[in-house]
Design a protein that fits this description.
Blueprint: H1 5-20, H2 25-36, E1 41-42, H3 43-50, H4 54-67, E2 70-75, E3 78-85, H5 89-119, H6 127-150, H7 155-163, H8 167-172
Antiparallel strand pairs: 1-3, 2-3
Length: 180
């Protein structure tokens, strides 16, 4: 498969961004390739197109499947598995947010809640330290409640909400803390 210079630039950059987000470069590049592709691709074609080892492609495809970002599909007359990425950017965003919440934030909240319970029996824990721990817990719980409120919105509704930008903040007025 021959990539256009723009497609190649996009895929390379997506790989770079993936490493900054904590995702393996090849995983991110394969996701970008499948997202931009107008047809399902098989593993050998992905390996050839990106010039990466077939074993690396196989591992990366399993990772993308575990995130729910790609799916296996079949092509008539070809016994190989072909892969296709979600094409709706809002669905991709939703899947990534849900997976990151499940893999990163939920375990963190569990530990923070355990720490909050254990703090009462920890005589060596200073009050100021406990207050900071409680503040982080409260912050993450507010964020997760907001996420739960918004995750079920239709993409069009969420898009309208996000386009409102700072209008809501200006409508609500300054917070007392903003006056400091």
């Amino acid at each position: 498969m021959q990539l256009s210079p723009t497609t190649e630039k996009y895929i390379l950059h997506w790989g770079e961004m993936g490493t900054r987000w904590g995702v393996n470069r090849t995983v991110a590049q394969i996701h970008a390739l499948l997202f931009l592709s107008n047809r399902p691709l098989h593993a050998e074609e992905i390996a050839d197109t990106l010039t990466v080892a077939r074993s690396n492609v196989s591992t990366s495809l399993k990772e993308l499947q575990s995130w729910g970002l790609i799916r296996v599909t079949h092509v008539l007359g070809d016994r190989r598995d072909h892969f296709q990425a979600h094409q709706d950017v809002w669905e991709i965003f939703r899947v990534i947010m849900e997976e990151r919440k499940k893999r990163e934030l939920d375990p963190t909240l569990t530990v923070l809640r355990e720490c909050a319970l254990e703090a009462g029996n920890d005589a060596a824990l200073e009050a100021a330290t406990r207050a900071r721990m409680d503040e982080v817990l409260a912050f993450l719980e507010i964020l997760m409640r907001a996420y739960d409120d918004f995750k079920h919105l239709e993409p069009a509704t969420l898009q309208r909400f996000l386009k409102m930008g700072g209008k809501i903040a200006r409508f609500l007025g300054p917070d007392e803390k903003d006056d400091l």
